[in-house]
Design goal:
The chain is an alpha+beta fold. The chain is built from 4 helices and 6 strands, in the order E-E-E-H-E-E-H-H-E-H. The protein has one domain: Alpha-Beta Plaits. Helix 1 (51-66) runs antiparallel to helix 3 (122-142).
């Protein structure tokens, strides 16, 4: 079905007017397109990574080198998704848009914010880099150029307290042991 702006409305899951380049910690979840199990399997409550899963871990681990002022905390790559904590220590002003390329077209990918405001949204840039680079490498591994690897969006939560941070860390650590009950498990879809 062709895109029709009258019936196809993508609503942003981001907090309106929240500065995603500001300091803080963010819990992110990225799911594989179609929830396909590309990254390995869970055996005896432990994640056994495939080559694609190991590569995703490598790209995750490289994020602080790509974005100075960015830190990463715990992460688990599951068969068809990734959970991790991204820490923005200093506002990172990395942009990949050409200067002066603002459009007069009112239709934008992020409807709430104009282009200049989006340039400082570090979290989406980091997630976009991770998704783009891992998808490219996975498609090279599988000889499937241009095939979607990740779902279009991702889940994020601003971590607001140390107690919440510790609970999320525990959730991430326990995720492989609870795989059979996970909403992303293929048997539960």
């Amino acid at each position: 079905m062709a895109y029709n702006p009258d019936i196809h409305h993508r609503r942003s899951i981001r907090l309106r007017d929240f500065d995603y380049s500001g300091g803080g910690a963010y819990f992110v979840t990225l799911c594989v397109h179609g929830r396909e199990c590309l990254f390995g399997e869970v055996a005896d409550g432990e994640m056994r990574l495939s080559d694609a899963g190991r590569m995703v871990t490598t790209v995750w681990d490289s994020l602080p080198h790509r974005y100075p002022g960015l830190g990463i905390d715990v992460c688990v790559v599951m068969p068809n998704h990734l959970h991790g904590i991204v820490i923005i220590n200093d506002p990172v002003r990395a942009i990949h848009e050409l200067p002066g390329c603002e459009s007069v077209n009112p239709v934008r990918a992020i409807h709430e914010l104009p282009l200049r405001s989006r340039r400082t949204m570090t979290l989406p840039k980091v997630v976009g880099f991770l998704k783009m680079n891992t998808a490219k490498q996975i498609n090279q591994m599988r000889d499937t150029p241009g095939t979607p690897v990740w779902q279009r969006n991702y889940y994020e939560r601003v971590i607001r307290s140390e107690r919440e941070w510790n609970a999320i860390r525990q959730y991430i650590a326990d995720n492989p042991a609870k795989w059979a009950d996970d909403e992303n498990h293929p048997a539960r879809q």
